[in-house]
Amino acid sequence: MSQLHDVSALLPHRPPMLMVDRVVDLREDGCTALKNISQSEPCFQGHFPGAPIFPGVLIIEALAQTCSIWLGQKSDGALPIFAGIESARFRFKVVPGDQLTLDAQFISEKKGFYTFHTKAEVSGQTACDAVLTICLRIP
After folding, report:
1. What pLDDT does residue 137 have?
2. Under a CB-based contact definition with an 8 Å cutoff, are residues 117 and 63 in contact?
3. Fewer CB within 10 Å: C terminus or N terminus of the chain?
């Protein structure tokens, strides 16, 4: 599935916690999405006035949502829940005007916990990479 524009149909999140603007590639083994970093993001009111930096925790949330989009397509209505971070590394500041390319690559599943290698890039350079775990909650 490519060029999905209605992200709200794929995730239960809504603004201001919806961190994915567009899905550009939904593959058998993962998902690629985009997040445009706008000066009007609510987090910039306090992080930091006059020198805005997009918080690392929100980059991780965007990556987790990208994992959840992929997993949601395979879960028959179960709700994907962010369950853990094995590792995360932040390499440079993400600022207003940047566009994050979010990539989630499925690694494995064990007892209902799905592990992904994730990466957030700006202009082809890695801003963050992390190993994230998502589980499914049956409604």
Report:
1. 82
2. no
3. C
Place of tokens 């949330």: 61
d(CA 75, CA 82): 14
Would you give the end-to-end CA distance of the chain in angstroms?
25
* pTM > 0.90: yes or no: yes
Distance CA 94, CA 110 (A): 33
* pLDDT tens figures, 45-84: 999 989 999 999 999 999 999 999 999 887 777 889 999 9
- Strand 99-110 and strand 22-27: the pairing is unpaired
Query: How far is residue 120 from each of residues 4, 79, 91, 133, measured CA to CA in Å?
Result: 19, 23, 10, 16
One-letter identity of residue 79:
L
H-type alpha helices, the chain: 56-72
**Is residue 128 within 8 Å of 89, Cβ to Cβ?**
yes
